[in-house]
């Protein structure tokens, strides 16, 4: 396995698992390693693997790609522990995520976020008519310390994931920005997975849209959501 640790001003910002596959680095959101900084090109650099060896290549970026402090031209061999610099960000290529003094506080915050659930009823969108309806469905969200939050469902569309705009936010290092959607069609709500992992319905993995019924249990990573009809 292989990972890219993303640092800014010596502070660990994120860890991206790339496994044994090639990946791109850049400002565009479709890159596996996404750096949202104007000093980074849309597709800035690429990491690839050939014949058991890793390679780094600059993709004609505007500001160049640096490997261990030296600007590269063409392809350069990449080894675990090497540091790639794009714009103002340092990317450490590792076989296992590491913890350092500079990143321990960040890692502790990430661990706390993995245990903490943020409910954002105002996020997402829905028609005015849907918003005006008095909800007769809800999600009971089981958080840490046995506390339970209730999210009344009175809109047509809800989202679950790590993204700041999600109605139900779930943290963790490798949590996708959007894991699943809950959509109202007629008088019923449907669970629609966006990724093919991280989510179970009544103990079973879900890979397609499923109509929700009273007392269904939705497990998203370590967070339990119970769908209830009031």
UniProtKB/TrEMBL annotation:
InterPro entries: Cell_Proc_Reg/RNA_Proc, FHA_dom, SMAD_FHA_dom_sf
UniProt domain FHA: residue ranges: 23-72
PANTHER family hit by this protein: NUCLEAR INHIBITOR OF PROTEIN PHOSPHATASE-1
Protein name per its UniProtKB record: FHA domain-containing protein
Protein species of origin: Methylomonas koyamae
């Amino acid at each position: 396995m292989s990972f890219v640790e993303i640092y800014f001003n010596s502070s660990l910002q994120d860890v991206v698992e790339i496994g044994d596959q090639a990946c791109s680095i850049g400002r565009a959101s479709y890159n596996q390693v996404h750096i949202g900084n104007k000093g980074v090109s849309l597709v800035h650099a690429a990491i690839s693997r050939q014949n058991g060896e890793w390679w780094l290549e600059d993709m004609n970026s505007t500001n160049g790609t640096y490997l261990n402090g030296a600007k590269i031209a063409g392809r350069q061999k990449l080894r675990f522990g090497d540091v790639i610099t794009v714009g103002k960000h340092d990317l450490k290529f590792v076989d296992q995520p590491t913890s350092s003094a500079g990143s321990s506080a960040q890692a502790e915050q990430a661990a706390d976020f993995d245990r903490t659930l943020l409910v954002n009823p105002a996020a997402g969108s829905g028609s005015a008519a849907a918003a005006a309806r008095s909800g007769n469905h809800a999600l009971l969200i089981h958080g840490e310390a046995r506390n339970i939050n209730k999210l009344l469902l009175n809109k047509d569309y809800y989202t679950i994931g790590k993204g700041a705009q999600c109605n139900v936010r779930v943290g963790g290092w490798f949590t996708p920005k959007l894991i699943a959607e809950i959509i109202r069609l007629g008088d019923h709500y449907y669970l629609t997975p966006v990724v093919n992992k991280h989510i179970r319905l009544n103990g079973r993995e879900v890979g397609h849209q499923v109509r929700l019924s009273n007392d269904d249990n939705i497990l998203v990573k370590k967070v339990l959501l119970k769908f209830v009809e009031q």
